[in-house]
Amino acid sequence: MLPIRQSIRLSAGSVTLRAWPETVAEAHLADLLTFTATLGALREDWHEFAREDVESGVWAAFWRLVQASLERGAALPRPLTWDDRLTLLTAMWDLNSLEDAEGKLTALTQRAARMVARLSQGLPTTASTSS
User: What are 55-71's pLDDT values in tens digits?
Assistant: First the structure.
């Protein structure tokens, strides 16, 4: 069973994160998939990367997800170090079942690959509705 809340210690203080309710996870699905696709593959080697190695659009998705994870009215202690960001990432992985999102991402990636293959063979991707 996944925990509902987790208090984490950051370099400038502590903060409590909560698991995303299903409604928030659905509302942030694009961010979740962006986050998972980009950083999920790097999860085992996070400490080998710097903040600058990640595109700004991915960080924007990350910050939206952090905001969705904070307890109401809570703010992150500043400044945040790279290790703080990694700690936040780990806590969000621990609190939320991101493996489910990875499954959705895999399905979307496979679907896109099939569409590219069809296009490269000159096959239509959907039934034509023109008369």
Answer: 888 888 889 989 999 98
- Mean pLDDT, the chain, integer: 78
| E strand or H helix that includes residue 129 | none
For the purposes of burial, counting CB atoms within 10 Å of the CB of 46, is it exposed (0-12), middle (13-18) or buried (19 or more)?
middle
Write the CB contacts of 49 (distance below 8 Å, at least 6 apart in sequence).
42
Q: Is the peptide bond before 79 cis (omega within 30 degrees of 0)?
A: yes
What is the rounded distance in angstroms from the CA atom of residue 62 to the CA atom of residue 93? 12
State whether the Cα torsion 77-83-87-92 is positive or negative.
Answer: positive
Looking at residue 67, the DSSP 8-state letter turns out to be: H
pTM of the model: 0.67
Report the distance separating Cα 101 and Cα 32, nearest Å.
Answer: 7
